[in-house]
Design a protein that fits this description.
This protein is of the alpha+beta class. It folds into 3 domains: about 80 residues, Phosphorylase Kinase, domain 1; about 210 residues, Orthogonal Bundle (Transferase(Phosphotransferase), domain 1); about 325 residues, Methylamine Dehydrogenase, Chain H (7 Propeller). It contains 11 helices and 39 strands. It has a 6-stranded antiparallel sheet with strand order 1-2-3-4-6-5, covered by helices on one side. A 4-stranded antiparallel sheet has the order 13-12-39-38, with no helix packed on it. The chain has a 4-stranded antiparallel sheet with strand order 14-15-16-17, with no helix packed on it. Helix 3 runs antiparallel to helix 5, helix 5 packs antiparallel against helix 8 and helix 9 runs antiparallel to helix 10. The chain is globular and about 70 Å long. The relative contact order is 0.07. About 15% of the residues have low confidence.
């Protein structure tokens, strides 16, 4: 076998150590980031893909969009670009195996394991689809697994290759030069026909993956790729039970609907497919004699709980009465562990609220953030955790699955944490010390500090913190906006009034509330002209393509078109005393001191309140349980 000449070489700052695998689009290597000293999975795309002159530019642009995806089941992308004539993607290295290898080694999977894996892939896809991206290459080889252990209770699943996604609008299955960029065994009919692709294209592929998990082989086994392609276009979806009689028959209609030829006949989302698979698992748990096995019964209970969108802790509290959004839990508690008092608290704490059911699902008591009235910048969710700080100036990670709390010390600087954000596959913490500021870059997988940046901030309260365009951005009430280049630690300073800052896909937005102005900075730090919005401005977020600006004094939110820089429609009324604004789960969320959480639909410009009680200070989305976490000051109930 010829030696791989790339091993031992350095490409774009990544030193290649060994080959991890090959695919239809290139090779994946284990490499070391020579700048940060961490292991990465480096994918080098085949040079032939650059034959389409638009492909390199599109690939880099869309990879950067994919890098903003935050979901515990998505492999984070650190960097994408072109070096030495090669297109590359640097991703988090996930030690373990992939679903293809697992099936090759073990054959068909137990139904409960198959459904658990597919459900996690569906979560990743729903996150991507909410951002307007379609994966196009969902297959077992792109499903990475950290195998099940006794202490974790199941496989940890990651969906990779999001750097090869495309925006859904107008995308098709072929490149300009006619190259097919999917995998024939799992591709939807519209990919072969060159028709537009959308989220239902990925639903079809996920249906193929579910079939293979259950039957042990791809859905259409033929003698040639052309025959497989024809089967996807013309043949009926195969029955898992016909391929393997041990597979419960209730999975046949799930696979058939997912693999329907016409997109409109499929499940509208990957999450809907996964939900039906869990229902099928619950139905299959009872044997033909009507007596469930212990394992099947446990699987059925778990599937029913997940399908309802309720964590186990909710079931426990029902023994002592129900907890609804209108009646927050009361009483003392010390942990999130499964116990009758796990969901009640007094004093400050973090509350998980499920917007679908209208219920408070979990509460993590304790003193978090920067005192009882922390700002929105002290609570973020993503990178497999809910991140906040404690009164001892430490970073705190809360596992959204278990409620387990981990404390990450940040060195010698003892001042309180002044901001937390997520970006570039890392968690970032801002902490001042007199007139000097420190930014810590944390690896969410190892909880180690990767880098520490130091800068002169002067005296002034932090008003905004974000990461994007290769830089960390901070705004301060003293009229300074600091930009730190991540690669070379170079610090740049802009003097501009700023009461809020938001890093979005189209630039950095700076709000000067006392001046009623909004300005946009380009990635290099060049400020655009000011835009005036009367009424006082206190916060800004990306609301699914629009900029949504909070006006605390008037208790309303206004929408701005980032292209025309004009206000759209009428102001959206929220509570009379709002505290913060956040975005996630295809909505904008506003908290207020009366205990109301407002959900704003940016497409309809309507706001719906839910009363949670207490003083709600900040909101952030939790990608694992699809809930909104509130940083709560005051007493719940």
């Amino acid at each position: 076998m010829a030696q791989d000449t790339r091993i031992g070489t350095t490409i774009a700052g990544y030193r290649i150590e060994r080959l991890l695998g090959r695919g239809g689009m290139g090779r994946v290597y284990l490499a070391e980031d020579t700048r940060l000293g961490r292991k990465v999975a480096l994918k080098l795309l085949d040079p032939e893909l650059a034959g389409d002159e638009q492909f390199p530019e599109r690939f880099i642009r869309e990879s950067r969009i994919a890098a903003r995806l935050e979901d515990p089941n998505i492999v984070p992308i650190y960097e994408a670009g072109e070096a030495d004539g090669l297109l590359f993607i640097a991703m988090r290295y996930v030690p373990g195996s992939d679903l293809r290898s697992l099936i090759e080694q073990e054959g068909p999977l137990e139904a409960d394991r198959a459904v658990a894996i597919v459900s996690q892939v569906a979560s990743a896809l729903d996150t991507a689809h909410a951002q307007g991206l379609v994966h196009r290459d969902v297959k077992p080889a792109n499903v990475l697994l950290v195998p099940a252990r006794v202490d974790t209770g199941g496989d940890r699943v990651y969906l990779s290759d999001f750097g090869l996604t495309r925006p859904t609008e107008g995308s098709a299955g072929m490149t300009k030069t006619g190259q097919f960029l999917g995998s024939v065994d799992y591709a939807a009919p519209e990919q072969f026909e060159g028709r537009p692709l959308d989220r239902r294209t990925d639903v079809y592929s996920l249906g193929c993956v579910l079939y293979e998990c259950l039957a042990g082989a791809p859905p259409f086994r033929r003698d040639s790729e052309a025959a497989v392609m024809y089967a996807h276009l013309r043949d009926d979806p195969p029955s898992p039970r016909a391929a393997l009689p041990e597979v419960p028959a209730v999975f046949d209609p799930v696979v058939a609907k997912a693999m329907a030829k016409r997109p409109e006949a499929r499940y509208p989302s990957a999450g809907d497919l996964a939900q039906d698979a869990r229902r099928a698992l619950a139905t299959a748990a009872v044997s033909p004699a009507g007596r469930p096995s212990r394992r099947a019964l446990l699987a059925a209970v778990a599937a029913a709980v997940i399908a309802a969108g309720i964590v186990v802790a909710l079931v426990l509290i029902s023994r002592h009465g129900t907890t609804t959004a209108g009646a927050p839990p009361t009483g003392p508690s010390t942990s999130l562990s499964p116990s009758p008092t796990a969901l009640v608290t007094i004093g400050n704490g973090i509350v998980a609220f499920d917007p679908k059911t209208g219920q408070v699902s979990t509460t993590v008591p304790g003193e978090f953030g920067h005192g009882a009235f922390a700002a929105a910048n002290f609570l973020v969710a993503g990178e497999a955790g809910v991140w906040t700080s404690d009164s001892n100036a430490n970073l705190v990670r809360i596992d959204p699955r278990t409620g387990k709390r981990q404390t990450i010390p940040l060195g010698h600087v003892q001042n309180p944490v002044d901001g937390i954000t997520i970006g570039d596959g890392s968690v970032w913490v801002l902490r001042p010390s007199g007139g000097v500021g420190y930014v810590f870059r944390i690896d969410p997988a190892t909880l180690q500090v990767l880098q520490t940046y130091r800068f002169q901030s002067g005296i002034g309260e932090q008003t905004g913190f974000g990461v994007g365009f290769g830089s960390a951005w901070m705004s301060f009430a003293n009229g300074k906006v600091i930009r730190i280049d991540i690669a070379n630690a170079k610090v740049g300073t802009m003097t501009v009034p700023s009461e809020a800052l938001s890093v979005g896909p189209d630039g950095v937005w700076i709000v000067a509330g006392l001046h009623d102005t909004i300005r946009r900075s380009d990635p290099a730090g060049a400020l655009g002209p000011p835009m005036t919005v009367q009424g006082g401005l206190d916060g800004i977020v990306d609301g699914s393509g629009w900029r949504c600006v909070l006006q605390k004094f008037s208790g309303q939110v206004v929408q701005i078109d980032p292209q025309t820089r004009k206000v759209i429609g009428n102001p959206i009324r929220v509570g009379s005393d709002p505290t913060s604004i956040s975005a996630g789960l295809a909505a904008v969320w506003v908290t207020d001191k009366s205990g109301d959480l407002w959900r704003i639909d940016p497409t309809t410009a309507t706001a719906t309140p839910v009363h949670l009680g207490g003083v709600l200070v900040a909101a952030a989305r939790d990608d694992t349980n699809k809930v909104v976490w509130e940083l709560v000051g005051g007493t719940l109930g």
